[in-house]
Write a structure and sequence with these properties.
- The complex is a heterodimer of chains A (about 375) and B (about 475).
- Chain A is built from twelve helices and 13 strands.
- By secondary structure, chain A is an alpha/beta fold.
- In chain A, strands 1, 4, 5, 6, 7, 8, 11, 12 and 13 form a nine-stranded mixed beta sheet that branches. A two-stranded antiparallel ribbon of chain A has the order 2-3. A two-stranded antiparallel ribbon of chain A has the order 9-10.
- In chain A, strand 9 and strand 10 form a beta hairpin.
- In chain A, helix 8 packs parallel to helix 9 and helix 10 packs across helix 11.
- The two termini of chain A are about 35 Å apart.
- Chain B has three domains: about 100 residues, no CATH class; about 100 residues, no CATH class; about 140 residues, no CATH class.
- Helices cover about 55% and strands about 5% of the residues of chain B.
- Chain B contains 25 helices and four strands.
- Chain B is globular, with a radius of gyration of 24 Å.
- Classes of the chains: A alpha/beta (about 375), B mainly alpha (about 475).
- Chains A and B meet through helix 4, strand 6, helix 6 and helix 7 of A and helix 12, helix 21 and helix 24 of B.
Amino acid sequence: MNCTRRNFLIGGSTTLFLSGYFPKISFASMQKKNLIIISLRGGMDGLTAVPVIGDKRLRKLRKKLILEDVLNLNSDFGLHPKLEIFHKLWQTNQAAFVHATNIPYTGRSHFDGQNLMETGAHIPYKEKTGWLGRGLLASNIIGKGLAISLPMPLLLRGVPQNNNFFPSPDFVETNLIDQIYNEFKGEHNELIKSTLDTIRQRPLSMQIATDSDDRKKLALEAAKQLKDQSGPRVAVFDLDGFDTHAAQGGVDGAHADELEEVNKIVTILYENLGHAFDNTLILTLTEFGRTIKQNGGYGTEHGYGSAILMAGGLLKKSQVYTEWPGLKKKELFEGRDLNSTIDSRAVYNSAMSVCFNQDPEFLRKEVFWGDELPDLSQELFKI
Amino acid sequence: MSLKFYRRVAFGLSPNDKPDKDPLNWALNQLDTIPNLLWPGIIPTEKELRKKYGEWVYGDREILRKKFKNDKHAYRKAKDELRIKTGERYFELNEHAIRHYQTKYSKQPVFERFWLFWGNHFAISEKDFLAEFSTGPYQREIIRPNMVKTFEEMVQSVTTSWCMIHHLDNSESFGPNSKKGMEWRETINENHARELLELHTVSPNAGYTQDDVIQLAYIMTGWAHKWDRKNLETGDIWFDQEMHQKGDKIVLGVKYKNDAKRELAKVIHDLATHPICIKFVSTKLCRHFITDEPTEDMINPVIEAWNKSNGSLIEIHKAVITQAYKHNENTHKFHPPEIWFMQLSRMFDLNIPLSPEKMNYSFSSKPNRRQRQLSWILREIGHSPYRAKQPNGWSDFEADWVSPELLLRRFWFSSVELPILVKSRNRSHDFILACLKNNFEDHENMASLIENFRFGTLDYDLGQKYGVICNLPGVLKA
């Protein structure tokens, strides 16, 4: 096991930071490309989801949290057994992982961290829009965002007329909206007014009452909408509960339960998108990883570096992309957390460039204020 | 002064309330004393409910899981029976009734709005079985009595309450050089220390570092539940010297000498009187009552009152109300779903919550549909009060509450559920008109929008009327 060596890439033959000229591709297929983000709130533990194999130090520091039956990825990394669908897709080059990555935020606060993972900024609460919303706006893709949650996530804000799906128990007569629509006057009513516009334009299948406790039904409807050529191009799922300060457990612990939820959503999307899965990218997003060392409650504390789980036909091949920093004390961030060697925003920027048919350089400037984010689209994705 | 002041700082006017000649004094006079809880039904103590919590976790974890370890179905059945026996399905419903009843009938509704605010500032988010057993009594017994004291006293009470300590894992935090820490090779859990800084007092604006968090966590070590085999984690809070990190600590540049349990009160004093804390909390108060982006000229008078009164919550509340009054006409505050619902309930005298007699519970079967109704509505409109997802509680920003589904839920509630809650004597069109007149200057325009349904008294007609009225911009906002 040579994971302690710096600067090595697993699966990648060239350096990850090769920032070549982005070819203005012909967009050969005008097939709609879908970008699906699954927010994992609370701090997803990359070392539980994609554990490094045989690291003695990790074993020592995490006595109660070690997984015994990991799924095999390659000689260096395994996969949590609850992430079955990723393992299946791995066999056909439709799953991949970026490891030791995070947004450039080291403060370890959920709220600041979640704010930054959504805004993509450096100072918490400074930006009022999300990187995905800005990416859509910059690409002139309006009204194509779909959130699978009751509140509209910050991630999608910044572009008007997004939709969300989380239906009420009974059918709602939208004619009521027509009766009061003109009462919404003035700038301070703009937000509500544009949201009412979105409701009026919803497809019929999204107006039907269902059970919003049933994640399966929600993911099914999302798949249905995404499959539609004229439907949404972006979907955002929201999961929480990754903040496992206690009883994090191994194969069956609290973190495993949450990973199982991710697995469920990706499974349903895969099974129901049909051929549209070939033109889809699914990426996870979290505010930070967790400490290497287990704490007093057999949980872990807020950390830094984590991993991005990826699935979809737009992935180039099955690989664990990483510039592995190692787990020796001096290699850890502040002596306690997995380091982040890849700014995760580079991955998201590249994913947007692929899915929105947009120059990554252009997006980097429009969305991320020109921050130094290498173009990874050729390394990670089919373009 | 427009009538919306009564919704901005309270819950609007019920058919029995009349506008006051001096609305500012009407509001200010409500803040000096703690109104009694009016709910005529059962109001269990925090301690009683914690005992129930203990019975539930002990019964499940120590008995049922072992007894039925090979029979998943029998386990599930036994667990459901235990839920009924311990009230695991019931107490949260009762707490919602106590809360809603209070906001509906209180003679000091302005005080009640502050009660909701502080319960959310010191939020208990959805974790373990806190919503089921503990968050309600925590808000009644920890938050409420402190609302006529100082901010510092409130922070002290909250920080050493069983509910907050359990919520933020402080019982799992061991000083690494403490007796137990060394013996069991345990270490700190930073969660509570971090939120005490970030959410409850100084906020990240204070520029604290990871070291400050660790040092504060050291100070907090030892404040934990008393564990025993029968009550498990539901024992009273005490200071366990054997968990406490020895040595001096430094937080935000201030040195705290090794002084066992007295360290915490000292650091809380410094945090709760820190100028950045005062500014942070004053801004939050103005945001809640005035506008999403309060300006310095709204916030500064609150800070001034804070400093002048050494953090007296009564004086702070009065300063906030004075600013809310002053800016009533030129600002618009969007209300989150629960407050909107409470206002509708008060303004239109809705038949909710259920009567105390019908809320009575036998602990022998599941709570019935009517008993679940209030909590179910709160959940469906997206605002089940004890179930915020994160320890920062529910947002006070409009943008967090305006999405297609969240707005649709309000249309759903007002047009489908609300008509069922209209008392039979109140089904006439004239009743609605009277309520509108009592609460809105532009009641004539509002009435014209429902004129078409004037003669209908079916649930459908009522649904059309309330569906329109309740979602007008002047009702969603105050």
